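User: Show me an example of a complex going from sequences to structure tokens.

Assistant: Sure. Here are the input components:
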Amino acid sequence: MSRLKSYQIGGLVALAGLLLVGVLLAGGIAWEKWHEGPPTAKIGGPFELVDARDGKTVTDQDFKGKWLLVYFGYTHCPDACPTALNDLSLALDKLGDKRHAMAPVFITIDPERDTADVMKDYVASFAPDIVGLTGSTEQIARAEKGYRVYAAKHPTKDGGYDMDHSSIIYVMDPAGRFVTNFTHETDPDQMAAKLMSLAS
Amino acid sequence: MQFRRFLFSGLAALIAVGGAAFAQQAQSAKVEVTKAWARATPGKSTIGAAYATVTAPADDRLIAAATPVAGAAEIHQHTMENGVMKMRQVDAVPLPAGQAVTLSPGGYHIMLMDLKAPLVAGQSFPLTLTFEKAGTVETKVMVGGVGASGPAGHDAGAMDHMDMGAMAGHKG
């Protein structure tokens, strides 16, 4: 009898334990959701990458105090990336003295092919102040995760690959917080107007 | 006399109609390729894209492209799905009879790979397009700026609806 009882108690304790774990899990998820806020609040964050100009390590902290304009793309991209970078440079040209408040960066999603050397020459074709950023596969993956960038290799028939990727220009305020975004389809005039109003 | 005149004018009319029909047929066998353009390539990039407007007189398909400036030229299509840009090689671009089909940013393009030299704004290069039925057509591709959104000197007001739709948002 007493053996049976202790067996039953053991079962009850196990059940209670399971219940407690379930409640904690559910509560934890709810708590997480509650504190997540709008999805935009979590875009960005710290990154550590390689500056294509000098091959030196650069972090998000190096851009604090400026409006960070972040575009993720790759140099083997024939369409969206040149369009985005060109439109961004056209917009920058319209900013007058507010231009120095901007830090436009182009982060590669294809670090394998986009070395510092390749990136440096590529961005120079668009605007002198766009900074090309590359890094190790891990560094790039972390930056992509922070900015919620989708990037995936798609193999081609010739044994090479293209990248499937989201094409977004993120606007981060001087404190590093996400404010708004453009795409490669945003009109440069609209981009410039928005940046002007933000920076003034 | 009266009858002779009638016969002559009838013959003349026949010749005129026949000639016109023949001329039209000769003309219609050819695919029209216009406004061929490409963007200048940035930095050391060895890839590029060429665009053009193609009008086939009868249903046809653009099945291949070649140019001496690139190691390979393929037909690619861009699609935007849920904010993700995808580029895929396609076998052909369908060309419905008499309809101008515009290859443009965000849609179809001729992907140029292993460029032998950078594409420089203001220069041009030859491009041969192969059609399933109509054979090959050679065209001259004008190179615009790195962020050009259409052929140089292309008047937006003169664009047809197809152009407008395909190029919406690509102002530059």
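The lines above are the inputs; the final block is the predicted structure for all two components together. Chain A touches chain B through 40 residues (CB under 8 Å).
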